[in-house]
Amino acid sequence: MEYITLHNGVKMPKLGFGVFQIAKDICEVCVLEAIELGYRHFDTAQSYLNEEEVGNAIRKSGVPREEFFITTKVWIDNYGYEKTKDSVLKSITKLQTHYLDLVLLHQPFNDYYSAYHALQDLYKEGKIRAIGVSNFAPDRLADISVFNEISPHINQIEVNPFHQQIMAHEFMQNRNIQIQAWAPFGEGKNNMFLNPTLSELGKRYNKSVAQIILRWLMQRNVVALAKSTHKARMKENFEIFDFIISDEDMQKINALDTKTSLFFDHQTPETVDMFVNMIQERRREI
Ligand code: NAP
Fold it and tell me: What is the separation, in whole angstroms, between the first and last Cα of the chain?
């Protein structure tokens, strides 16, 4: 495993296991399998509805708590100073731990200022070791970073070979905010696993497309979250620390950037509608 150090000195494994869209009934087994394979960094969220199952797996694994790096995210309906504090304490209980390594605000909507103040206080109380945000574009990130006592340690955003977020990454590097990639494979959209450039590089290094993508992210100092419900793929995704992609080949992957999200373009009416629907659906679920 490779590690990065956040701006408060906390060490974080560069590769994590994400549990978005892993159903409650299989989540515990998947996390236990991932732990067995060596994963220690897990990323869940209040809106994934599987914090308890992640907690069960961590407890049952017998691995000491301090070896793990556990993240959750506060959903927007839980924003507001008291609501955020209460919801994080509930997440801590569900995850069956005494503290969390990282808590993020999931989206830049609703009263995220009060929510962030709650995270800052929980951080000072020692309940969480690092705080941050997710899906914050550079302008929102500048806002929250400049006008708060503690600048976010992390911003978790979509990063993959087709949406490389170069400008956002540069902005974060300049402000000492660590970038973290969600959907490093773009959930396979736009035939990412069959891309000719990535496949060709896979052959050259005797690695899969998934491994090439994750290695490329590691070399760009992007913390990455991979998700799989298949043990063989979990293993494959973990075996990325025994090779190095040359500068020339890194450039070939850099050239795949389309600078467009594979999921949301917040500027089009269709995607704004899609987003509003998603928020309303989650509101019914949580
Ligand atoms: P992803 O990791 O880009 O892609 C997951 C998909 O790729 C799954 O369908 C998985 O299939 C497949 N896959 C995984 N490894 C593979 C391999 N080696 N070969 C072929 N297929 C493979 O997408 P994601 O799950 O959306 O993102 C990863 C994590 O980021 C999430 O779990 C979550 O923790 C985080 N996330 C955060 C946000 C946010 O708003 N902050 C949004 C999205 C995701 P199987 O499961 O069937 O193996």
Answer: 34
pLDDT in tens, 206-225: 999 999 999 999 999 999 99
Phi, psi at residue 260, to the nearest 5°?
-135, 135
**With contact defined as beta carbons under 8 Å apart, do 109 and 52 qualify?**
no
At residue 277 the predicted structure's pLDDT band, cuts being 50, 70 and 90, is confident
| Tokens at 48, concatenated | 């994934």
Task: State the distance from the centre of ligand 1 to the C-alpha of 188, rounded, in angstroms.
Answer: 8
Instruction: Say what the pTM is.
Output: 0.95
- Place 267 in a pLDDT band, splitting at 50, 70 and 90: low
User: Which atom of ligand 1 is found nearest the CA of 104?
Assistant: 41
- What is the CA(28)–ligand 1 centre distance, in A? 17
The first and second tokens of residue 117, run together, are 């103040």
Confidence of residue 266 (pLDDT cuts 50, 70, 90): low
Nearest Cα to 120, choosing from 93, 96, 146, 85? 85
Which residues have a catalytic role annotated? 48
Q: What are 163's strand-pairing partners?
A: 160
- Please say whether the beta carbons of 119 and 105 come within 8 A: yes
Query: Which amino acids bring their CB within 6 angstroms of ligand 1?
Result: 18-20, 43, 134-135, 156, 182-188, 193, 208, 210, 225-230, 233, 236-237
Tell how far the Cα of 229 is from the centroid of ligand 1, in angstroms. 9
What does DSSP say about strands 69-74 and 102-105: parallel, antiparallel, or unpaired?
Answer: parallel
Backbone torsions φ then ψ of 23, nearest 5 degrees = -65, 150
Inter-residue contact 214 to 226 (CB < 8 Å): yes
Token readout for 54 is 């992640």
